[in-house]
Amino acid sequence: MSALAVKQSAPVFAALGDPTRLRLVARLAHGEPLSISQLTEGERVTRQAITKHLEVLADAGLVTDHKRGRERLYALEAAPLDDARRYLDQVSAQWDKAIARLRALVER
Amino acid sequence: MSTTNTIEKQADLRAPIARVWRALSDSKEFGSWFGVALDAPFTPGKTTSGNITEKGYEHVRAEFHVDRVDERTHTLVFRWRPHAIDPNVDYSHEPYTTVTLALSEIPSGTRLAITETGFDGIPAARRAKAFEGNASGWAQQAVHIADYLAKHA
């Protein structure tokens, strides 16, 4: 694992180093996006506290959110089903780099 | 067409088509921008291989099975295994992806169209492996932890 990868992983570990946040990740791991109200259900902390925890998870890239009507829905970013898509993104990024080098070669 | 099976790219280059075609069809020129030191020219029906020149991947030997080098239609087609980067893994039983590079003339120069297809044939485990050692790999681990907790809570 490269030094850069370790550095990039640190916020992920920090984000997971809290029981409430780990529970949120566990609930979102089922794959279905959930609202703050749904995620607050069964927790002993306030809606505001859950919102703050979700912000920490979002900053670490673990969850994403989007608006649906008046609600904000949260989803786990690292769902296993995303693997295929992310794999293509990585191959695609390599093509972009190669095209940039080709451009430099033929346009000079 | 499935969304996970194919990558399509397009780039408009400010250079004559003959110049861009040379950068595609000459294996030395191709290697200089693709990032591979090929040991033989592109010949239809033949394989050429070489080590990746990008830093950190120099141990990777890439094989290109050339299907078409067509100067008339300015089309290069080859099959290879993208991301076969782990020296401890035998990739020989895995399917190839097919890459088509096609050129056409446009007023400003040359349009390059790239299609790489066949990703659905690559085992899911290997796709996931491509992320190991980066931040998203750890995010993946977080999901495993979360799954475990959900089952054992």
Can you walk through the features of this model?
The complex is a heterodimer of chains A (about 110) and B (about 150). Chain A has a three-stranded antiparallel beta sheet with strand order 1-3-2. The termini of chain A are far apart. Chain A is elongated, with a radius of gyration of 18 Å. Chain A is of the alpha+beta class and about 110 residues long. Chain A is built from five helices and three strands; from the N terminus they run ααβααββα. In chain A, β2 and β3 (about 70-75) form a beta hairpin. Chain B has about 150 residues and is of the alpha+beta class. Chain B has helices at about 15-25, 25-35, 125-130, 135-150, and strands at about 5-15, 35-40, 45-50, 60-70, 75-80, 95-105, 110-115. A seven-stranded antiparallel beta sheet of chain B has the order 1-7-6-5-4-3-2. Chain B is globular, with a radius of gyration of 19 Å. The termini of chain B are far apart. At the A-B interface, α1, α2 and α5 of A face β1, α1, α2, β7 and α3 of B.
Give me the strand/helix succession of chain B.
EHHEEEEEEHH
- Bin the strand percentage of chain B: 25-35%
Q: Please give the share of residues in helix of chain B.
A: 25-40%
Oligomer state equals heterodimer
Let me know the average pLDDT of chain B: 83
Question: What is the string of SSEs of chain A from the N terminus onward?
Answer: HHEHHEEH
How many beta-strand elements of chain B?
7
Low-pLDDT parts of chain A are none
Quickly give the structural class of chain B. Answer: alpha+beta
Q: Please give the radius of gyration of chain A in angstroms.
A: 18 Å
Assign the structural class of chain A, choosing from mainly alpha, mainly beta, alpha/beta, alpha+beta, or little secondary structure.
Answer: alpha+beta
Provide mean pLDDT of chain A, rounded: 82
Ends of chain B: how far apart?
41 Å
Number of strands of chain A: 3
- Terminal residue distance of chain A: 37 Å
* Fraction in beta strands of chain A: 5-15%
Number of helices of chain A: 5
Strand order of the largest sheet of chain A: 1-3-2
